[in-house]
């Protein structure tokens, strides 16, 4: 079987590490600086796996479980995490906290072990698909998505 390049590793270059949480945080800090189709072709991980094809999409967002776990483990500090900080001068504030001081916010815990395994897979080609129609990229609240996410999200409410 042909091995697929890890496009996260290609995108981050020398910044890439074995810490997949850090990789995603660095990716978002870099990738969220632009917008538009041409930018997306060259900077969006799903498009990178498909040669810049704009029909590409992510199966499971890495941010959703990162936020759930970080919020859950920092509940006693009344702290919530956001991909883009609107309550801070630096929009990368929360990403930097997680990237630079991971152990302070995601200490050793069963949830962090599961998150780490998920993030390792989320970087890989198996988390990206090529849709038959680009308009399907916006179908985030499809019945399949809701069925998949509902059981996961309820486990973080306890």
Walk me through the topology.
Blueprint: H1 7-12, H2 20-31, H3 37-43, H4 45-49, E1 56-58, H5 63-73, H6 93-100, H7 102-105, H8 110-122, E2 128-130, H9 143-154
Antiparallel strand pairs: 1-2
Helix pairs in contact: 2-6
Tell me what the structure shows.
This protein has 158 residues and is mainly α. The chain is 49% helix and 4% strand. The chain has a two-stranded antiparallel sheet. It is globular, with a radius of gyration of 16 Å. The mean pLDDT is 88.
Kindly report the spatial arrangement of strands forming the biggest sheet: 1-2
Uncertain stretches of 5 or more adjacent residues: none
**What overall form do the CA principal axes indicate?**
globular
Q: Using only CA atoms, what is the Rg?
A: 16 Å
Overall mean pLDDT score?
Answer: 88
The main pleated sheet reads as:
2 strands, antiparallel
Q: Can you write the helix and strand succession as a string?
A: HHHHEHHHHEH
């Amino acid at each position: 079987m042909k091995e697929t390049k890890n496009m996260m590793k290609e995108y981050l270059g020398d910044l890439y590490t074995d810490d997949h949480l850090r990789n995603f945080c660095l990716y978002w800090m870099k990738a969220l600086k632009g917008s538009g189709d041409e930018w997306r072709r060259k900077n969006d991980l799903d498009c990178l796996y498909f040669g810049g094809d704009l029909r590409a999409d992510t199966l499971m967002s890495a941010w959703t479980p990162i936020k759930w776990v970080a919020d859950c483990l920092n509940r006693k500090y009344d702290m919530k995490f956001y991909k883009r900080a609107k309550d801070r001068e630096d929009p990368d504030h929360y990403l930097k906290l997680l990237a630079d001081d991971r152990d302070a916010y995601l200490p050793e815990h069963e949830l962090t072990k599961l998150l780490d395994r998920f993030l390792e897979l989320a970087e890989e080609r198996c988390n990206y698909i090529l849709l038959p129609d680009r308009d399907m990229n916006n179908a985030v609240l499809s019945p399949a998505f809701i069925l998949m996410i509902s059981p996961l999200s309820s486990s973080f409410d306890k």
